[in-house]
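Whiteboard transcription, Tuesday session. T.W. wrote the structure tokens on the left side:
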């Protein structure tokens, strides 16, 4: 038995397949450039390159999802949940931004707060000892409106968040960034809400079309043509499944 002196750790070996995909992408791209379009292998090379890039996209999206889940869980671990109905770790939830702000109350007194923006939720927290946080308030993104406020004698960088039932005034040097990101989250949520009905209608139409195709196949005597069409449909459905698994779904919860 021969001892192997290997200084590489497990993470190095886990990353090797990713490195190979990058190398294969470059190799296939170079071969494709040198292959005439009329060559018998051109189509196969193109398909191989696209399939490789689909895998790369899949892996990249999975990594982003994992990173987002870790961030949401990290935030959740800091919270002292007085509100037992609050569950941050939802499958659809994406972390967007965070920062310390001053909340301005009526009477002009100020309290420090730490706020988190998710794609579907604005979360404002009271700062406690040892880095722990207690929820001050939380508001769904779709209920919010924003109002830019001018500086006054006491405060600068003011803006107001207006929900269905409450108004909150904040002061922070990151005001413009907060406003832009919240506006974007509101816009994204509204666009996805508008897309729901057409999406469902298309899905119903696709289901009916598939049923008609299956009935047509059952009446066909051309077994070879039926097999070809089934394989082509299976390829389309497989790509559709990958895209839908990777994209965050707002309809299990929200943007």
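and on the right, the sequence the group agreed on:
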């Amino acid at each position: 038995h021969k001892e192997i002196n290997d200084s590489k750790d497990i993470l190095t070996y886990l990353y090797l397949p990713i490195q190979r995909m990058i190398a294969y992408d470059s190799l296939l791209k170079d071969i494709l450039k040198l292959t005439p379009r009329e060559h018998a292998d051109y189509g196969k090379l193109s398909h191989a390159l696209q399939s490789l890039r689909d895998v790369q996209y899949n892996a990249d999206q999975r990594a982003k999802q994992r990173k987002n889940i870790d961030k949401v869980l990290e935030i959740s671990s800091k919270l002292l949940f007085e509100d037992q109905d609050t569950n941050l770790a939802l499958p659809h939830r994406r972390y967007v931004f965070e920062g310390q702000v001053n909340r301005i109350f009526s009477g002009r007194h100020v309290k420090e707060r730490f706020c988190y923006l998710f794609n579907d939720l604005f979360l404002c927290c009271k700062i406690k000892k040892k880095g722990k946080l207690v929820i001050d308030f939380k508001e769904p993104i779709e209920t919010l409106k924003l109002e830019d406020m001018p500086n006054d004698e006491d405060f600068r960088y003011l803006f107001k968040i207006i929900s269905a039932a409450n108004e909150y005034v904040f002061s922070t040097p990151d005001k413009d960034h907060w406003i832009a990101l919240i506006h974007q989250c509101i816009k994204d949520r509204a666009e996805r809400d508008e897309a729901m009905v057409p999406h469902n209608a298309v899905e119903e139409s696709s289901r009916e079309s598939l049923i008609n195709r299956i009935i047509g196949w059952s009446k066909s005597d051309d077994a070879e043509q039926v097999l070809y069409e089934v394989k082509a449909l299976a390829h389309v459905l497989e790509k559709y499944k990958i895209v839908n698994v990777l994209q965050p779904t707002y309809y299990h919860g929200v943007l």
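Someone added at the bottom: The beta strands are 95-104, 110-118, 121-127, 133-140, 145-148, 158-162, 167-171.
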